[in-house]
Amino acid sequence: TNAMFEASAALTASVCDRYGITKDREHILGHVEVPGTDHTDPGALWDWTKYIRLVNLA
Asked: Is there a smaller number of Cβ atoms within 10 Å at the N or the C end of the chain?
C-alpha cells in the first residue's frame, strides 16, 4: 500500500541520514539481496523506483 511504502521510506531515510548512507538503489538493498537462502522480501512486485524516490523525499 502507499502507506506501507511511505512509512518504510521514512524509516530508511532516517537510517541513511543517521549513518551517512547514500540514498540510492546501489546502497539501499532488499532483504533478498543479503546472503542467505531464506530471504525473499520485498519480492518481485516491489517498486524500487517509487521507493527510492520516496526515500529521497522523506
From this structure: N
